[in-house]
């Protein structure tokens, strides 16, 4: 209803987009959390979602791989197209969707199984390895790319839950990339990480970009600026503006965006 | 808005004192309640232990029986004057030989009524005994057992006791000869029910209870888990499933005797299953444990954190994979604990078993789930209603055995829970 004022700087055609959403509303029971979000997410780029806490970034991310289906009372309206196919089409297999669209959650959630098993689980259920050796190779490669392998190589049998918070988050990243998804949704993947581990993850994101489409939620403006090519700013359940990261940070079109990225609250803003 | 130091001064001090007093009162109340509960439990156990002590031993008589060939049918050792052999054997231990028929009867009655059959069975098993001596240590009958244990006072006037002065004198003579002993009463758990308290044991009841719990577990564990998984993970939320849910909770509150009636009229009446059998008993008990298992399983499934399901969904697991690979294993400790506690509950259940005839008089342990048998609680029920003195202590002992099994099952539940939880 209020998309008219939404400004698309350098619009990317829906055709070039890996994911495009049209008029996405999300409800949690009677409460509406997202209002008419139209966003194109280009392939082989990193799109950062920024915005104040509670504005609906996670909700939007979870709408893309239909993770909201698992919440009783959650409802999604509008269209979300993945390669031109509506992910909410009833004929679409949600298992396949989630294999193609991997996710790293806001809170680390390793399975209460061994480190090895955490990473091996996805490839195994999708039949991606023909032998134990091949599976082990996938596990090692995924752990290495997530920058965790050196720390855990001697205790792959230890439970994943025995790792520290930051290590758990990297384990979850390894788990997500082990199934080789086309799209990777990352909800604040570095919020529990120290600067070195964060750098490893950011490098990984940059490297994955060549083959994957990545959407990352972050509260760190620096991180958004470092890793993303495009940025979308959400506020109170609405997409306020999106565009190339450099432009969003240097010349935001909208006052709210500018206030947010410069760290000013509405009260501090000088009158018009 | 208040005075500069709202937490100092007399009023604040008084407020704090009141609060501390309330804290102390609450603690005292709790302690009092727990002491009361523990005290009552202590009294119960103490009463049982004191009551059961006499049943821990059994007065026995060591007798040598002469198996005279002329008293036994040479063609069939099963036929013979075994009662005479018995009476002569006991009489040989006495200083004075009986003269009247009544005296012979009294002498035969010193040992338990089954003894002549025990001799016959021994001879049938080994016919080479004919012409030789057979020495057996046999339980004495209840009245002598009571006398031997000092439970019958010799000061009681003769008309108020079961044994006459003459009989007591005979028993004392046997004791003086060293033929009387009082060993630990293993027969209590190795023998089955009997008309005579001195030879009555719990073996049949224990085996019957075991078969019943087996049937109950095999039926209600998988069915309960399947129902709970469906309700919790797959069922749509609508009127029908709401109704199912409410009724499962109601089912758990149905008095057990109602399930007994159901078993009697449907399982035995309609389906024609044999009555008094562990099969029917187990099925009836599984009706009772099923709702319990469903409820604990659902609670255990619900306790699995959302984040684990999301993690599994997130890597593309299908719903059944999420449940089978992740949710159910995590819920297992809770499910097992609940199941064992449900089974323990079923083990002590009496009323429905009475209705389906598991209080029959059965002297052999059942060979399978299709043979008539009793169960521990019904055995207790039968013994508690028996007139003989010896059954009083045996009832207490049987209750202790039942409590022991319950305790063991709960211990297993705790052990399993801790082990499984440590693993995850
Ligand atoms: N399961 C839920 N049930 C009901 N309301 C929810 C649920 N999840 C999120 N919400 C609501 O939806 C809105 C958006 O939440 P969301 O988690 O998407 O915010 P967010 O932008 O990710 O915030 P943060 O940066 O703090 O993670 C919030 O107002 C939140 O209260
Ligand atoms: Mg969030």
Automatic annotation (TrEMBL), chain B:
Topology versus the membrane: Multi-pass membrane protein
Subcellular localization(s) per the UniProt record: Cell inner membrane; Cell membrane
GO annotation, cellular component aspect: plasma membrane
Gene3D superfamilies linked: MetI-like (1.10.3720.10)
Transmembrane regions listed in the UniProt entry: 25-52, 210-231, 251-273, 279-301, 322-347, 391-416
One example of a Gene Ontology biological process annotation: phosphate ion transmembrane transport
Residue ranges of every copy of the ABC transmembrane type-1 domain listed in the record: 206-413
Sorted UniProt keywords: Cell membrane, Membrane, Transmembrane, Transmembrane helix, Transport
Pfam family of the protein (one): DUF3333
Cross-referenced SUPFAM superfamilies: MetI-like (SSF161098)
GO MF, one example: phosphate transmembrane transporter activity
PROSITE patterns: ABC_TM1
Coarse class of the protein's main subcellular location: membrane
Family stated for the protein in its record: Belongs to the binding-protein-dependent transport system permease family. CysTW subfamily.
Protein name: Phosphate transport system permease protein PstA
Taxonomic lineage of the native organism: Bacteria, Pseudomonadati, Pseudomonadota, Alphaproteobacteria, Rhodobacterales
Encoding gene, per UniProt annotation: pstA
């Amino acid at each position: 209803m209020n998309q008219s004022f939404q400004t698309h700087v350098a619009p990317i055609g829906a055709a070039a987009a890996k994911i495009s959403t049209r008029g996405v509303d999300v409800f949690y029971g009677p409460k509406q959390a997202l209002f008419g979000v139209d966003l194109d997410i280009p392939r082989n780029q990193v799109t950062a979602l920024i915005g104040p806490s509670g504005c609906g970034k996670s909700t939007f991310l979870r709408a893309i791989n239909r993770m909201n289906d698992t919440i009783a009372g959650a409802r999604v309206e509008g269209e979300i197209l993945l390669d031109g196919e509506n992910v909410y089409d009833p004929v679409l297999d949600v298992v396949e969707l989630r294999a193609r669209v991997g996710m790293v959650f806001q809170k680390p959630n390793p399975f209460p199984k061994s480190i090895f098993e955490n990473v091996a689980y996805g490839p195994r259920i999708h039949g991606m390895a023909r032998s134990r050796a091949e599976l082990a190779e996938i596990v090692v490669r995924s752990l290495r790319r997530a920058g965790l392998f050196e720390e855990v190589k001697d205790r792959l049998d230890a439970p994943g839950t025995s790792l520290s918070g930051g290590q758990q988050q990297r384990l979850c990243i390894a788990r997500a990339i082990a199934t080789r998804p086309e799209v990777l949704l990352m909800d604040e993947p570095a919020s529990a990480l120290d600067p070195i581990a964060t750098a490893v993850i950011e490098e990984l994101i940059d490297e994955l970009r060549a083959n994957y489409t990545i959407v990352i939620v972050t509260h760190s403006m620096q991180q958004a600026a470092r890793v993303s090519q495009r940025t979308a700013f959400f506020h109170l359940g609405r997409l306020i503006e999106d565009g190339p990261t450099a432009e969003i940070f240097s010349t935001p079109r909208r006052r709210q965006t500018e206030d947010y990225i410069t760290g000013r609250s509405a009260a501090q803003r000088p009158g018009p | 808005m208040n005075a500069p130091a709202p937490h100092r001064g007399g009023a604040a001090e008084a407020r704090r004192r009141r609060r501390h007093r309330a804290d102390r009162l609450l603690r005292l109340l709790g302690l009092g309640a727990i002491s009361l509960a523990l005290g009552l439990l202590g009294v119960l156990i103490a009463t049982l232990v004191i009551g059961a002590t006499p049943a821990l031993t059994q007065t026995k008589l060591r007798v040598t029986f002469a198996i005279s060939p002329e008293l036994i049918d040479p063609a069939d050792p099963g036929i013979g004057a075994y009662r005479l052999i018995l009476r002569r054997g006991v009489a040989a231990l006495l200083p004075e030989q009986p003269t009247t028929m009544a005296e012979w009867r009294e002498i035969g009655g010193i040992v338990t009524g089954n003894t002549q059959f025990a001799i016959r069975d021994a001879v049938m098993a080994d016919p080479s005994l004919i012409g030789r001596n057979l020495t057996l240590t046999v339980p004495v009958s209840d009245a002598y057992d009571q006398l031997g244990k000092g439970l019958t006072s010799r000061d009681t006037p003769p008309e108020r006791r079961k044994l006459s002065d003459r009989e007591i004198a005979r028993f004392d003579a046997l004791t003086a000869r060293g033929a009387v002993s009082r060993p630990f009463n293993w027969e209590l758990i190795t023998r089955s029910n009997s008309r005579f308290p001195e030879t009555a044991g719990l073996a049949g009841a224990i085996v019957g209870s075991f078969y019943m719990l087996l049937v109950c577990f095999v039926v209600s564990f998988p069915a309960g888990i399947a129902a709970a998984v469906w309700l919790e993970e797959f069922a749509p939320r609508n009127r029908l499933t709401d109704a199912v849910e409410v009724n499962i909770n109601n089912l758990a509150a149905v008095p057990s005797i109602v399930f007994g009636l159901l078993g009697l009229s449907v399982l035995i009446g309609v389906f024609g299953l044999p009555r008094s059998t562990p099969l029917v008993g187990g099925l009836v008990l599984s009706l009772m444990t099923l709702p319990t298992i469903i409820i604990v399983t659902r609670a255990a499934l619900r306790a699995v954190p959302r984040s684990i399901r999301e993690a599994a969904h997130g890597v593309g697991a299908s719903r059944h994979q999420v449940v089978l690979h992740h949710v159910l294993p995590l819920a297992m400790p809770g499910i097992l604990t609940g199941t064992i506690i449900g089974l323990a509950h079923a083990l002590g259940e009496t009323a429905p078993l009475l209705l389906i005839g598991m209080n029959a008089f059965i002297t052999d342990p059942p060979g399978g789930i299709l043979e008539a048998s009793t169960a521990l609680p019904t055995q207790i029920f039968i013994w508690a209603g028996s007139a003989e003195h010896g059954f009083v202590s045996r009832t207490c002992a049987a209750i202790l055995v039942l409590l022991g099994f319950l305790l063991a099952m709960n211990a297993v539940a705790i052990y399993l829970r801790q082990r499984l939880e440590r693993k995850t």
